[in-house]
Design goal:
Elements (H helix, E strand, L loop, with lengths): L6 E8 L6 H11 L3 E12 L4 E6 L2 H14 L2 E6 L5 H14 L5 E3 L17 H8 L4 E2 L3 H8 L4 H9 L3 E4 L11 E4 L5 E3 L14 H14 L4 H16 L12
Parallel strand pairs: 1-2, 1-4, 4-5, 5-6, 6-7
Antiparallel strand pairs: 2-3, 7-8, 8-9
Helix pairs in contact: 1-7, 2-3, 3-4, 5-6, 7-8
Length: 252
Protein backbone atom coordinates (compact mmCIF):
# COMPACT_ATOMS: atom_id res chain seq x y z
CA UNK A 1 0.00 0.00 0.00
CA UNK A 2 1.40 3.40 -0.98
CA UNK A 3 0.71 6.73 0.70
CA UNK A 4 1.41 10.34 -0.23
CA UNK A 5 4.02 10.62 2.54
CA UNK A 6 6.91 8.14 2.84
CA UNK A 7 6.59 5.62 5.65
CA UNK A 8 9.26 5.46 8.35
CA UNK A 9 9.13 2.46 10.65
CA UNK A 10 10.41 2.81 14.20
CA UNK A 11 11.37 -0.41 15.98
CA UNK A 12 11.94 0.72 19.54
CA UNK A 13 10.63 0.78 23.09
CA UNK A 14 7.55 2.41 24.57
CA UNK A 15 8.27 5.36 26.86
CA UNK A 16 5.14 6.52 28.76
CA UNK A 17 6.48 10.08 28.96
CA UNK A 18 6.62 10.33 25.16
CA UNK A 19 10.10 11.80 25.27
CA UNK A 20 11.90 8.80 23.82
CA UNK A 21 11.24 5.56 21.96
CA UNK A 22 8.45 4.98 19.47
CA UNK A 23 6.33 7.95 20.57
CA UNK A 24 9.18 10.42 20.11
CA UNK A 25 10.13 8.78 16.81
CA UNK A 26 6.63 9.09 15.38
CA UNK A 27 6.38 12.74 16.45
CA UNK A 28 9.68 13.38 14.68
CA UNK A 29 8.67 11.54 11.52
CA UNK A 30 5.46 13.49 11.18
CA UNK A 31 7.30 16.80 11.60
CA UNK A 32 9.35 15.71 8.56
CA UNK A 33 6.25 15.07 6.45
CA UNK A 34 6.68 11.31 6.83
CA UNK A 35 4.17 8.78 8.09
CA UNK A 36 5.54 7.22 11.25
CA UNK A 37 4.73 3.65 12.27
CA UNK A 38 5.97 1.70 15.27
CA UNK A 39 6.87 -1.80 16.40
CA UNK A 40 7.52 -2.20 20.13
CA UNK A 41 10.56 -4.06 21.41
CA UNK A 42 9.96 -3.32 25.09
CA UNK A 43 7.71 -1.60 27.57
CA UNK A 44 9.70 0.74 29.77
CA UNK A 45 8.61 2.11 33.12
CA UNK A 46 10.03 5.61 33.24
CA UNK A 47 9.56 9.35 33.32
CA UNK A 48 11.88 11.92 31.77
CA UNK A 49 13.99 11.88 34.96
CA UNK A 50 13.71 8.33 36.26
CA UNK A 51 14.15 5.02 34.45
CA UNK A 52 12.65 2.32 36.67
CA UNK A 53 12.59 -0.87 34.62
CA UNK A 54 12.38 -2.43 31.15
CA UNK A 55 10.15 -5.34 30.18
CA UNK A 56 11.36 -6.88 26.92
CA UNK A 57 8.97 -8.32 24.34
CA UNK A 58 10.07 -11.76 23.20
CA UNK A 59 11.30 -12.18 19.65
CA UNK A 60 8.10 -13.72 18.31
CA UNK A 61 5.94 -10.95 19.81
CA UNK A 62 8.05 -8.39 17.95
CA UNK A 63 7.91 -10.37 14.70
CA UNK A 64 4.13 -10.64 15.05
CA UNK A 65 3.97 -6.84 15.06
CA UNK A 66 6.53 -6.37 12.30
CA UNK A 67 5.36 -8.86 9.67
CA UNK A 68 1.94 -7.29 8.92
CA UNK A 69 3.61 -3.88 8.50
CA UNK A 70 6.12 -5.30 6.02
CA UNK A 71 3.37 -7.18 4.16
CA UNK A 72 1.02 -4.19 3.93
CA UNK A 73 3.07 -1.01 3.53
CA UNK A 74 5.88 0.31 1.35
CA UNK A 75 8.43 1.15 4.05
CA UNK A 76 10.85 3.89 2.98
CA UNK A 77 13.22 3.85 5.98
CA UNK A 78 13.68 2.03 9.29
CA UNK A 79 14.95 3.39 12.60
CA UNK A 80 15.89 0.90 15.32
CA UNK A 81 16.22 1.83 19.00
CA UNK A 82 16.47 -0.32 22.12
CA UNK A 83 16.69 -4.03 21.45
CA UNK A 84 17.18 -6.87 23.93
CA UNK A 85 20.08 -8.54 22.13
CA UNK A 86 21.79 -8.93 18.78
CA UNK A 87 20.04 -12.23 18.07
CA UNK A 88 16.67 -10.49 18.07
CA UNK A 89 18.02 -7.61 15.99
CA UNK A 90 19.50 -10.02 13.45
CA UNK A 91 16.17 -11.80 13.00
CA UNK A 92 14.32 -8.52 12.50
CA UNK A 93 16.85 -7.31 9.94
CA UNK A 94 16.53 -10.54 7.98
CA UNK A 95 12.77 -10.02 7.70
CA UNK A 96 13.16 -6.36 6.74
CA UNK A 97 15.81 -6.99 4.11
CA UNK A 98 13.94 -9.94 2.64
CA UNK A 99 10.97 -7.67 1.94
CA UNK A 100 12.83 -4.43 1.23
CA UNK A 101 16.46 -5.23 0.30
CA UNK A 102 17.52 -1.62 -0.26
CA UNK A 103 15.59 0.14 2.52
CA UNK A 104 17.88 2.42 4.58
CA UNK A 105 18.25 1.35 8.22
CA UNK A 106 19.45 3.64 11.03
CA UNK A 107 20.37 2.07 14.36
CA UNK A 108 20.60 4.10 17.56
CA UNK A 109 22.48 1.61 19.80
CA UNK A 110 21.07 2.53 23.20
CA UNK A 111 23.16 0.87 25.94
CA UNK A 112 21.84 2.86 28.87
CA UNK A 113 19.10 5.35 29.70
CA UNK A 114 19.96 9.01 30.20
CA UNK A 115 19.17 8.51 33.91
CA UNK A 116 22.00 5.95 34.12
CA UNK A 117 19.98 2.71 33.96
CA UNK A 118 22.12 0.07 32.22
CA UNK A 119 20.44 -1.86 29.39
CA UNK A 120 23.54 -3.59 28.02
CA UNK A 121 27.16 -3.82 29.08
CA UNK A 122 28.64 -4.76 25.70
CA UNK A 123 28.05 -6.87 22.59
CA UNK A 124 29.96 -9.67 20.89
CA UNK A 125 32.09 -8.22 18.07
CA UNK A 126 31.47 -11.01 15.56
CA UNK A 127 27.70 -10.73 15.99
CA UNK A 128 27.96 -6.95 15.92
CA UNK A 129 29.81 -6.93 12.59
CA UNK A 130 27.14 -9.16 11.07
CA UNK A 131 24.53 -6.62 12.17
CA UNK A 132 26.49 -3.60 10.92
CA UNK A 133 26.75 -5.12 7.45
CA UNK A 134 22.95 -4.94 7.21
CA UNK A 135 22.48 -1.32 8.26
CA UNK A 136 23.34 2.05 6.73
CA UNK A 137 24.17 4.08 9.82
CA UNK A 138 24.86 3.58 13.52
CA UNK A 139 24.54 6.64 15.77
CA UNK A 140 26.49 6.13 19.03
CA UNK A 141 27.56 8.81 21.47
CA UNK A 142 31.04 8.70 22.99
CA UNK A 143 30.28 6.39 25.97
CA UNK A 144 28.32 4.05 23.70
CA UNK A 145 31.00 3.68 21.05
CA UNK A 146 33.62 2.99 23.73
CA UNK A 147 31.43 0.24 25.21
CA UNK A 148 30.56 -1.24 21.84
CA UNK A 149 34.15 -1.47 20.60
CA UNK A 150 35.96 -1.77 23.95
CA UNK A 151 38.27 1.00 22.70
CA UNK A 152 39.18 4.04 24.76
CA UNK A 153 39.73 6.43 21.84
CA UNK A 154 36.34 7.27 20.31
CA UNK A 155 37.81 8.40 16.98
CA UNK A 156 39.72 5.16 16.58
CA UNK A 157 36.56 3.29 17.57
CA UNK A 158 34.51 5.16 14.95
CA UNK A 159 37.03 4.35 12.22
CA UNK A 160 36.87 0.71 13.35
CA UNK A 161 33.08 0.53 12.98
CA UNK A 162 33.18 2.55 9.75
CA UNK A 163 35.00 -0.32 8.06
CA UNK A 164 31.60 -2.01 7.99
CA UNK A 165 28.93 0.73 8.02
CA UNK A 166 28.34 4.47 8.28
CA UNK A 167 28.96 5.95 11.72
CA UNK A 168 27.62 9.19 13.14
CA UNK A 169 29.67 9.81 16.26
CA UNK A 170 27.67 12.24 18.37
CA UNK A 171 29.57 14.89 20.31
CA UNK A 172 27.06 15.64 23.03
CA UNK A 173 29.09 13.69 25.61
CA UNK A 174 32.53 14.54 24.29
CA UNK A 175 35.03 16.23 26.58
CA UNK A 176 37.09 17.54 23.65
CA UNK A 177 34.57 18.38 20.91
CA UNK A 178 31.31 19.06 22.73
CA UNK A 179 28.45 19.44 20.26
CA UNK A 180 30.52 18.48 17.21
CA UNK A 181 29.19 15.37 15.46
CA UNK A 182 31.37 13.44 13.00
CA UNK A 183 30.09 11.37 10.09
CA UNK A 184 32.33 8.48 9.08
CA UNK A 185 31.43 6.93 5.74
CA UNK A 186 34.82 6.11 4.28
CA UNK A 187 37.83 8.40 4.23
CA UNK A 188 38.07 11.60 6.25
CA UNK A 189 35.15 12.14 8.66
CA UNK A 190 32.86 15.06 7.86
CA UNK A 191 32.04 17.56 10.58
CA UNK A 192 28.58 18.55 11.72
CA UNK A 193 29.19 21.46 14.09
CA UNK A 194 26.63 22.78 16.51
CA UNK A 195 24.91 26.02 15.55
CA UNK A 196 23.07 26.30 18.84
CA UNK A 197 23.65 29.11 21.31
CA UNK A 198 24.70 27.28 24.52
CA UNK A 199 22.59 29.69 26.59
CA UNK A 200 19.50 28.67 24.61
CA UNK A 201 20.22 24.95 24.86
CA UNK A 202 18.50 22.69 27.37
CA UNK A 203 19.16 18.94 27.75
CA UNK A 204 16.37 16.74 26.43
CA UNK A 205 15.29 13.24 27.35
CA UNK A 206 15.31 11.11 24.19
CA UNK A 207 17.50 13.41 22.10
CA UNK A 208 19.27 10.41 20.54
CA UNK A 209 15.94 8.87 19.55
CA UNK A 210 14.82 12.12 17.97
CA UNK A 211 18.06 12.59 16.04
CA UNK A 212 18.11 9.07 14.61
CA UNK A 213 14.41 9.24 13.68
CA UNK A 214 15.05 12.55 11.93
CA UNK A 215 17.92 10.99 9.96
CA UNK A 216 15.71 8.06 8.94
CA UNK A 217 12.98 10.48 7.88
CA UNK A 218 15.39 12.49 5.74
CA UNK A 219 16.65 9.29 4.11
CA UNK A 220 13.05 8.29 3.41
CA UNK A 221 12.62 11.64 1.67
CA UNK A 222 15.54 10.82 -0.61
CA UNK A 223 18.34 12.81 1.01
CA UNK A 224 21.93 11.57 0.81
CA UNK A 225 23.41 10.40 4.11
CA UNK A 226 25.45 13.51 4.95
CA UNK A 227 22.58 15.85 4.11
CA UNK A 228 20.17 13.66 6.09
CA UNK A 229 22.45 13.92 9.13
CA UNK A 230 23.02 17.65 8.68
CA UNK A 231 19.30 18.42 8.53
CA UNK A 232 18.59 16.06 11.43
CA UNK A 233 21.15 17.91 13.56
CA UNK A 234 19.38 21.18 12.80
CA UNK A 235 16.11 19.57 13.84
CA UNK A 236 17.37 18.24 17.17
CA UNK A 237 18.95 21.58 17.99
CA UNK A 238 15.56 23.23 17.51
CA UNK A 239 14.11 20.69 19.91
CA UNK A 240 16.88 21.33 22.46
CA UNK A 241 15.93 25.00 22.44
CA UNK A 242 12.17 24.39 22.29
CA UNK A 243 11.71 24.81 26.05
CA UNK A 244 13.62 24.62 29.33
CA UNK A 245 12.21 21.23 30.30
CA UNK A 246 13.53 17.70 29.67
CA UNK A 247 10.66 16.84 27.33
CA UNK A 248 11.01 18.28 23.83
CA UNK A 249 8.13 20.00 22.06
CA UNK A 250 8.05 19.18 18.36
CA UNK A 251 5.60 21.70 16.87
CA UNK A 252 7.02 25.11 16.04
Amino acid sequence: MKYKHPIVLSIAGFDPSGGAGVLADVKTCEQHACLGMGVLTANTIQTETNFISVNWFDKQAIIDQLQPILDTYEVAAVKIGIIENLEVLSELLKLIKKKFPSVPVVWDPVLSASSGFELHASWNEESLNSILEQIDLITPNVPEIKKITQMEDEIEAAFHLAKVTGVLLKGGHSSERLGLDLLFEGGVPRELPSKLDPEACYPKHGSGCILSAAIASNLALGEALFEACREAKQYIEKRLSSNEYLLAYHVE
